[in-house]
Amino acid sequence: MKIYLYFIGKPKDPHANAIAEDFLGRAARYCPAEMREIRPERTDLWAKHPAARKIFLDPVGKAMDSAAFAKVFALAEMEGRDQVFLIGGHDGLPSGWGARADLLLCLSAMTFPHELARAMLAEQIYRAFATLRGHPYPR
Questions:
Q1: How many angstroms separate the Cα of 138 from the Cα of each of 82, 93, 124, 126?
Q2: Which end of the chain is more exposed for a tag (fewer CB within 10 A), N or C?
Q3: CA-only gyration radius of the chain, Å
Q4: Is 31 left (phi over 0), alpha (psi -120 to 50) or beta?
Q5: Do residues 37 and 10 lie in contact, with contact meaning Cβ atoms separated by under 8 Å?
Q6: Integer Cα distance of 82 and 48 in angstroms
Q7: Rounded to whole angstroms, how far apart are CA atoms 137 and 139?
């Protein structure tokens, strides 16, 4: 299993991805994880990751607490299936992409800058692995 965290749009602050990269680095202790910017017109996530579960962040998506999110990872590990996460740009997800996702996930009912959403999602990914391994971090 491998984790891919993709995002659309460049961060306004060059240091904005540092927190997300830190949490993905911690998650990489449990499985390979990477984060990168994509350009929708040049990227076909379905061709690039045909067997992976595509989980896209969207305000109309399913809300989950951290325990439910950890269960997503438990299932992925059991299936040995890669997880592809996508955070849309300032206009949201590209047209038609949400309908093709395996899961639309609402990170929060509140609105956050995309850089902060990356950090929050990366932290939840690390938290999920730590929870599943009985690590004291999630306390």
A1: 23, 30, 10, 9
A2: C
A3: 14
A4: beta
A5: yes
A6: 12
A7: 6
pTM over 0.85: yes
Q: Give Cβ neighbours of residue 81 (< 8 Å, ≥ 6 apart).
A: 1, 51, 52, 53
Task: Classify 9 in phi/psi space as left (phi over 0), alpha (psi -120 to 50) or beta.
Answer: left
Q: Please give the Cα distance from 109 to 65 (Å, whole number).
A: 13
Q: What is the pLDDT of residues 21-65, one digit of tens each?
A: 999 999 999 999 999 999 999 999 999 999 999 999 999 999 999
Write the CA distances from 39 to 8, 19, 126, integer angstroms.
6, 22, 25
